[in-house]
Amino acid sequence: MSVHTLQQVLQQNSHLFLIEQISCFSLNIPASTGYYQDGDFVIGGLFSLKVTLGENRSRYGFTSTMYIPDYVHAHLTKHYQHMLAMVFAIEKINKNPNILFNMSLGFYLFNVDFNEMKAIQSSMSLLSGESPPIPNYSCRPEKSNKLVGVIGGISTGISTQISRVLSLYNVPQISYAPFDQSLWTRVQPQTPYQFPMSTAALYQGIIQLLLYFSWVWIGLVAPDDMRGELFIVDIRGEMTKYGLCVAFAEKVPELPAKSTANSHHIMKRRRMTDVIVAFGDTYSLMSFVYNIFSSYPIGNVWITTSDWDMTISPFGLSISYTYFGGGLSFSVHMDEILGFKDFLRSVEPGKYPKDIFIGNVWSIIFECPYYNDQRFLDELSECDQNYTLDTRPLHIWDMNTSPFSYKVHAAVYAFAEAIHEELSLRVEVDSVDEGVRPAPMPWKLHPFLKVGYLGRITDEGSVVNEEDRTTKFDIFNYQSLQDGTTALVNVGEFVFESHGVQHFFLNDELITWGEFYSEVSVFEVRTMGYFTEWSSSKIGP
Predict the structure, then answer these.
(1) Pick from 151, 188, 152: which is nearest to 168 by CA?
(2) For the residues 353-382, what does the mean pLDDT come to?
(3) CATH for 199-334+469-536, among 3.20.20.70, 3.40.30.10, 1.10.10.10, 3.40.50.2300?
(4) Which of 76, 297, 312, 338 shows the greatest Cβ crowding within 10 Å of its Cβ?
């Protein structure tokens, strides 16, 4: 058979092969349903409410009919706030007829856990309008044809997989994951938009905190990935400039990878220093936290960022304060989202009957029975559905806006502003017929997203359109209050200006150290008073 004849045969039968593959993919993977609200324009949202282990269906391939349900390793109920931030922002936008010219925003929300395969599947569901998805087909055009952009995911790995699907159709994506300067090397040709964050400012803030307490012998912990590798290399170099030494540098794998360090090994390293700087997020450090809980508490002081929520007890253990109490966390300063706390207080299952996620979250937060169908609203005999979220303890819910929720809320407004600008341009050129709803064109939003606050990473590793700006961090202390509850208390701030000026403020009278930590080891080296203000335009000791 000639090459030309072979090509003809392949072309004639390619559609049959494609149909077979689609059939296998769609029929044998259980549906991952989403929470849909209609609108003239729809924004997809991919969130992570659980940590599941297994994803056993991948062992058998798409053609297998065998399915083993995922094992839920941890329910991260506080992450439900990320979804609510998106719903809240869209409700506000829809109440303002001037933003979208009297048109409305809708949403299509999925829970992808911390699973990259589920992120791919849900991304394809957004494009096809069907769950499970039919690749490259618009099965429910009333959903898929309105899609203008996607917000997600919570980690670099998940954001990468989402982008690999959306890039094929030039659909813009805004990631609310921690800023990752290495992301441009992972996703081609279209990287997600990120919220820029100055790692140089963060490193300087951590170093000034170490210098303030004269802590010079420091342990480092980071995820075993590119982001963690860059952190260890960069902060080690900066610490050397100030005479600070690294006692150890531990790179830890994410779940479900097998840990390379057991609890005995970690215990030995923890005893090498009183102070450990942990760089990572809640999920990437979960395996490490498990090993910490498996060892005896020895009172280390933990310095970290808000990406890692040290208040969460992911393994059903309410002992996080015992191990991490007294910890200090750097969080990029955020203004309060006006009205968001009142909105959170108003949330309850009866208000959002179409929300497929609220039933499970509510049952966990309030420890009440949950029926995975419409009976939930009728059978709450042991759990009053009028309970409010502001009564829950910190390890399962927080009424304060999390940094992730803040970024999700801002991402919704970034899309709304981009849609507004694109529509305005159409009106100027008379391309919109009166009385006819304009069809969404997601690829046309890129120019407006690029000139906003968001930025992409270029090949040189710099953030597109990121102007020099002042970075401000709040410093929080994880402590136990007199009433037995735990809280994050603001004890200081660090301001880093683009031209190198730094301002460090700390009120250490407000700090409560962990129950196993010796106050002598903290204060015997102190030469300053209970409050200090330090500023300098010089980068150096």
Answers:
(1) 188
(2) 72
(3) 3.40.50.2300
(4) 76
